[in-house]
Amino acid sequence: MESSLVKDNPLLLPLNKEKTIYDGFITVQEQDLRLRIHLPPDCQLKKARLHCSWQLKHLLRGYEHIVKQRLQQSADLVSFMLELKTVVEVGLKSRPDCSSIPPPQYYSQLISEMETLGWDKLLSIDTEFRTLRLKAQDSSGRQHILTIKLKSKHPAEAPECSADLPVPLAITWTPQSTLEQLHNQFLLVLDSLTDFWDVLDEIDCKTWILEPEKPSRSDTMRRITIGNNVSIKVEVDPRHPKMLPECCLLGAEHVVTPLRNKLNANMHMWLSALSVGFVTPIVLKLRSLIRCVTTFAVANPSTRPVCMSGCERCPPAGRASALFLESVLTAASLSQ
Predict the structure, then answer these.
(1) What is the pTM of this model?
(2) Fewer CB within 10 Å, N side or C side of the chain?
C-alpha cells in the first residue's frame, strides 16, 4: 500500500514512523493542493481527520458529505486518495474560475495596484480576489460601476471588464498596464457619454416615461406619452445624442397620422447645436409656443406635467435633446 501511495502522490509524505500523519500536496490537473491527514493509532479511515488548504477547501465546498462517505467506505488510504482526487476534479470542472490558482505574486501585485489607485475606489471584491467592482464618477456627478475580472496571470493577461454602458466597453491592456490606468480609461469613456446621459436625464425629468420602467445607464430608448393613448418611442444615438433621434409614433392611426406628417414636415429644421427652447418655435412656427404648454392625462391626475419650449424652465443652449420631439408633437396636436 505504501509504495502505491507514494507512486500516486509523490508530494504527500509521512511525518512519523507510525505513518499516521501525512502532509504535503496532492496533484490534480497540474495543480498542487496542500493536504494533511491524521489517522488514529489503528489507522482506521473512519476516524481520520483532513486538514485542507483554503484552495482545496474551496474546491470541496458542497462535496463534504461525499468525502465523509468515501472515508467510511474506502478500504485503505490509497483507495481513498483516488476517490478524493476524483471529487476534486469534479470541483474544478464545476468552478472554471478555480482551474488556475494564482501565485503569491498575484496578490502582492493586486494590493500594490489598489494602493496606487486608492482603496476608496473599491466597492467590493470577491473571496477569491478575482472580481473587483470599482466606482467612478462622471463630470456631471453620476455614479458608475466598473466590474473587473482578473486572470490568474495578471497583469500578463488582460482582464474582463464590464459596465452599464450604451456602447461596448473597449479597453486597451498590455502586460505593463495597471488598475489605475484601467480606471482612467473608464473615466474617459464616461466623459465621452456625458452628453448622452444629460439628454436622457433631461427627458426622464421633464416627460412622462412609459418604457423602460426602470431605465439603466445602458438604455438608449424611451417611450414617451404625448397624449391620450398616443406615445412616441425615441432611440437616442449614444455617440451623437444631439442629432435628431430615431422615433416611432404609437397609437391609433387617425391620431398618429397628422402628428407624423407634422414631424416629417419639420424634421429638416432640427438644429442639434441649439437649445430645445430655440429650435421648437422655428420648426413649428406657432405663436402659441411663447407660453408654457402642459399636457395632462385626464384619467390620471397624478401625471407629471411636460414643460414645453418658450418658457423660463427650458434647458439652456447647447443641450438640445429628444424632448424637442415631445414638444413638437404635443404642440402639433394643439395647433390648427
Answers:
(1) 0.60
(2) C
